[in-house]
Amino acid sequence: MPTVLVIAARDDWPTDRVVKTLDERGATVFRMDAAEFPEEAGLAARIDDSHGWAGGVVTSHRELDLADVSACYFRTPHPFRFAEGMSDAERRFAAAQARAGFGGILTALDCRWVSHPSAMSRAEYKPYQLAAARECGLTLPPTLITNRPDAVQAFAGDIPGTIICKPVASPVFIEGDQLKAVYTRVLTEDDLGDLTGMETTAHLFQAWVDKAYEVRLTMAGDRPFAAEVHSDTKAGYTDWRSDYKSLTYKPTAPPPDVIERVRALMHRLELRFGALDFVVSPAGEWTFLEVNPCGQWDWIQHATGHPIAEGIADELLGVTE
Amino acid sequence: MIPVAHPREAFPLSPEGGRIPHSSEQPSGPDTRPWVLRFAVLPDSARATALPPALYDEDRQISVGVDTDLLPYMQTHSPTIPDGSPANPPPLDEGPKD
Ligand SMILES: Nc1ncnc2c1ncn2[C@@H]1O[C@H](COP(=O)(O)OP(=O)(O)OP(=O)(O)O)[C@@H](O)[C@H]1O
Ligand SMILES: [Mg+2]
């Protein structure tokens, strides 16, 4: 029986919405978290000259035959969990074996993926996304990545307006037992006057894009679900993630050429789900900022009524409009 | 065999010990601290969303509420906002990144 395999953290509640939708459509779902392997889930699979990988996964509640998997939904599962008594060295060894063994068997599945984990990892890199978006004809802000103060000064001189700085990778970290975040910073003359520490690592600078509002465009397969994001505070206007409380949302329809280019981008990145950020200028031009291969979407569904969970379920079931 | 890439990349999982590695260390000096970190802020904990208690239902394969028929996913729709507590890190929009 065709089965949708869901590999996700158990406490990822938006995944519940997808599971429930699949269930209501009569699909068979096998949900598991990587944390269940190896203690609560058994794996056995064989390959030889006459057959590809055959076998399955069994838990105390259900059994999965790899041959039945028609689609797989992948959503940051928790790490594998090993026996309490293991030493650190054993645990590291076991984790690498589990990734290559359990992860290797699953990622070898030739089925519909939303999205394939390797594609998701690759697409996490902002420089790669920007290059791909440009190739697909999307408009992007002039961008500099550097650890050289002189390159920052030169960039600031070349850009007619304001420039911003934002992290190239994860913006959150824990230091001094406190969680901290680095949001998008509109740079002042003073900021640019002291570039001590620039050499320590890669930094991303970008031209500030003149902003009427922003758009979060969620793609489920080829289907676009776009929401205008408006903010009435300075913090929210600069970086909407810094002031969620100030935000209002409105469903919108992207211009057809933007949709075409976004579909091309998704195709190029081999993603079947993505949460994209755009800035829309007062003149109505759309500028691409980024695509999140594993972006949150549930609050957009709630705020706009866009049937995103249904869109993801359609994609998993191979339903096309 | 010396792997060329971290094997997590082909099968991304949230990192061991939580999404964001914990540290008690204080900032180093200006010469060694990444420049952009001078703009780091503590997110406002007043904005954090309290999550309703939930249990995982093995049969339905979703989380269910405690003392209520409402399913947990129907009760929270806010984006997970960083509340400054290292015990409650946000997913933000990140996927499996370093
Ligand atoms: N060039 C820019 N011009 C205007 N606003 C910007 C620009 N770059 C970023 N922003 C603002 O900052 C927000 C965050 O930037 P962006 O989406 O590029 O990265 P990010 O969300 O930090 O990435 P990540 O997914 O790694 O957390 C945007 O949604 C937007 O509000
Ligand atoms: Mg973003």
UniProtKB/TrEMBL annotation, chain B:
This is Putative ATP-grasp-modified RiPP. It comes from the Bacteria. It comes from Streptomyces kasugaensis. Residues 1-33, 67-98 are annotated as: Disordered. Residues 87-98 have a biased composition (Pro residues). InterPro entries: GRASP_targ.
